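Troubleshooting: if your tokenizer reports a length mismatch, compare your output against this known-good record of 517 residues.
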Amino acid sequence: MVTSIQFSQATSAIQSEFRSHTQTIQRSLERLSTGKKINHARDNVAASAINTRLESQLRGISAAVRNSQDAFSLAQTGEATIGEMQNQLYRLRELTLQSQNDTISQRDLETIEKEVFDIVQALEGVVSGARFNQKSLFDGSFKGQQLQLGANVEDSLFVSLQDLRTSFLGRRTLVKSSSGVDTSSRLLDGDIFLLNGVSVRESQASDDQVSVIDGANSAIAKAAAINAVARQTGVTAYVTETRTDVQDTLNTYLGAQTFGATGAVQEVTLTGSTYIEVNHVKIGGFTVQDNDHHKDLVNAINDVTEETGVYAELNSRQELVLVASDGRNIALDYYGDRNGRDLETLIGLKSGNDHTEGSAHNGYAYGGGLRLESLYTIEADFGVEVNTVVGDLVGDYQHSNQSLFAANESSALSQLSLGSRSDRDQALETIDTAIEQITSQRSFLGGVQSRLESNVNSLHQRYEAVSATISRVVDVDFAEEASQLTLHQIKLNALASVMQRSPELNEQIVSLLLTDR
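Known-good structure output:
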């Protein structure tokens, strides 16, 4: 063994171990004082990177919780506004119904109109005051607003609120037939028909259980086909009454039936061989006076209304008009001289679609009308055959079998009038539409609140999970760290004891040198 005085290997080893244990003790003390086992990136590079990402996620979740709570408050503000509007609209409806009662005086009506005007003004004030953090909610500007509900970019919800100002509230899109539907063709007849981008199926006989002829081609069947996709299109079809004296209404839409001219009823005797059939029920055995003066013809038709679904009336020009209130097809067949032409002339009805049945000499079919309604714009796309069946489509925009129908401003709540019976009827429809609109908006806000509440609960759970993960990655195990600290302190004390004996080695070297002398 070589003994050296310039360099002591044992002493160097002791010093190295001493430094190592000292550093370990310092790190242990730091961990115990901070409670973290990663205080510097050098402590654990991979764990430090993981911790950084988790901390970022945790802070993002905290921000998302605050965002969701703010959005929840916004939705609550909107719902409270709508709740007040509903109360006002209920009062409006009550007043409108009261105004329809003919027992009230003109002065009473004027008082009601004044209160209606005041309520409409109050509604406008409620809407203008509906604000959240300086943002107006229901003036039409709150469109496509982003609610950040999570810690990541994709965790967002886009919200749009309706324009509930009185100049927009109650508006609806109305499209009416110009006449009865074409009873000779189905809705599609092999072509296409799209409403707001949704395909409408072909009308079927099973859709109409009351028409005795051409059930698949009736207004009832065509309305059923349109309503089968009403949830997707937002468009609802209503059947209007079948009349033999139809006149143009709003649009030449869904009504391609063209009738001839109406003439006054002339004297004619209906016998066993000269008679008419209304929906396959025979009308005859009496004499009809000019202009049906005694209403024998009208009464005879009305006596069998329960069987036919059709009633008769005379218009102001004493012309016969047949009406089916439920919009069913009306089949009218003539039996008599000269192939029924004489009888047809004497009865004076407009001619409908040719439809002669059985042994009848001449016959026609009349279809009901259709009315389409939507709270939104109606866009219709149709093929050539459908265009023929439903009539010319005239909208705000038209190009190559496409038409666009916009909401009618005259139906808005701000235009309410109770001046006439028709005005009051229109007012009631407008109020009902307004109630439907704000109810829909309230339901939407309720759904948003439910989603936000669920989102907050989910975020809290995620926060707890991420916090637990961070704790496992970062937090120190006090028992283990204290044990390690004690262990290294014992080793350090042992090394200190050994270093105290290092002078004895030097003394041995000096003794050897003296002995050599």
